[in-house]
């Protein structure tokens, strides 16, 4: 049995405000929890309905009933495992290598996919505008598949961040120069914009280059999904 | 008011079995319906709660109440517009150019994103194994954003289809040759596999080449999402 106040606390972590207030976030799913346990992230508490084959690296697991779990889970069909972890402190070191900057990405599935892409392409630093969806949102975490443990997330005002950097700044635009015609440097900043509105004007002004992914044949579809576009541009960057 | 039997019919179209039985599928969302109306697809019936600014190309719209719409919509928050269209007949012509083959893609969001990518990259023909998620599934349609009207979908046994083609067959594998090291031809078949299991053994045997997207740095994450991988490979094909 889990005490009522604890259930209430965990349930409240579905909201960004409460996550920030308590400095905690929730991970669901056995495999992802096992991955987070192996990382540098600090555990607050672990719950499971049944934990015979749960590889918990020696930490204590609290038994929870299916009924209790369904009260606090963000999933329609909770899968028996829930971990609460401390939100890591944002690192403030100067960033080099390639950095991905997100200017207002709103869809949790897109952010989750983008984090997973950064993990694949070894782009460790992701800098998000305050308007970008919170990376500890349960739907983002579901889409990252544990990759969240291998990237550094930073939420900050982009204008100040970009102005302070000496790296070349590439923004993804519909009307940019084809990525096929450019030679990309070894280090830089890549900015991806909001799903509907793209990169905001004030951020666009700070871009040193405008990139585009060429469409084939006539113009038919409006735009590429931001996660698909990020996949292609990170692949080009790392080639 | 919409008659009860009609509401029942439309609701049943959320299931693949009923879609195939009636040869009908449902599109929700004003913008997507407007796009489908402009295409070659044949309308069965159109419903709207309020249609003052609904661009229906002159076809009749049936008024529906919010309550009726919520009974038949597949959306948590129905948005006021619902169209029922006839499922187009599968074309049986011989395919050339690049063809995308999907071997058991299961996630509706992934299939929707892949259809949108094919539209962007001008890959018109998508051939799916019978185990691939149905492209008229409401969640697929939501993710395609109207691109479904500009591609040809075919569901068929892949072994027979691939055996009858004379095009080179490229399969996406974790242990394939880096796509950066290959020169791809002007025409061919690209096969993407299931999210968890990849390309099935019997289909893998028919591949003439195995492709892979190189990971950067050490191996950390398990795999790229199938839609992200498709984005990168279609981009390479069309370069």
TrEMBL record, chains A, B:
Pfam families xref list: MRM3-like_sub_bind, SpoU_methylase
**InterPro entries xref list:** Alpha/beta_knot_MTases (IPR029028), MRM3-like_sub_bind (IPR053888), Ribosomal_eL30-like_sf (IPR029064), rRNA_Methyltransferase (IPR051259), SpoU_MeTrfase (IPR001537), SpoU_subst-bd (IPR013123), tRNA_m1G_MTases_N (IPR029026)
Carries keyword Methyltransferase?
A: yes
SMART domains documented for this protein: SpoU_sub_bind
What GO cellular component entries does it have?
A: cytoplasm
Q: Where is the RNA 2-O ribose methyltransferase substrate binding domain?
A: 26-91
Instruction: Name the Gene3D superfamilies on file.
Output: 3.30.1330.30, 3.40.1280.10
Q: What GO terms in the biological process aspect are recorded for it? A: methylation; RNA processing
Provide any one GO MF term from the record: RNA binding
Keywords recorded for this protein, A-Z: Methyltransferase, Transferase
Q: Which family does it belong to?
A: Belongs to the class IV-like SAM-binding methyltransferase superfamily. RNA methyltransferase TrmH family.
Q: What protein name does the entry list?
A: RNA methyltransferase, TrmH family
Source organism: Maribacter orientalis
């Amino acid at each position: 049995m889990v005490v009522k106040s604890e259930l209430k606390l965990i349930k409240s972590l579905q909201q960004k405000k409460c996550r920030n207030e308590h400095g905690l976030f929730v991970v669901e799913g056995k495999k992802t929890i096992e991955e987070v346990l192996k990382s540098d992230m600090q555990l607050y508490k672990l719950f499971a309905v049944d934990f015979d084959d749960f590889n918990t690296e020696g930490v204590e697991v609290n038994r929870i009933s299916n009924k209790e779990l369904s009260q606090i889970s963000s999933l329609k069909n909770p899968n028996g495992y829930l971990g609460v972890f401390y939100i890591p402190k944002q690192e403030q070191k100067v960033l080099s290598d390639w950095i991905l900057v997100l200017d207002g990405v709103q869809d949790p599935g897109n952010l989750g996919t983008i984090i997973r892409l950064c993990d694949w392409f070894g782009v460790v630093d992701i800098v998000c505008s305050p308007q970008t969806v919170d990376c500890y949102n349960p739907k983002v975490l579901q889409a990252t598949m544990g990759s969240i443990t291998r990237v550094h997330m930073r939420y900050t005002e982009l204008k100040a961040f970009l102005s302070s950097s000496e790296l070349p700044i590439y923004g993804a635009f519909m009307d940019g120069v084809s990525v096929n015609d450019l030679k990309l440097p070894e280090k830089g900043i890549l900015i991806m914009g909001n799903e509907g509105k793209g990169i905001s004007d004030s951020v666009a002004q700070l871009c040193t280059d405008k990139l585009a992914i060429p469409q084939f044949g006539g113009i038919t579809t409006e735009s590429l999904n931001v996660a698909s576009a990020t996949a292609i541009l990170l692949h080009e960057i790392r080639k």
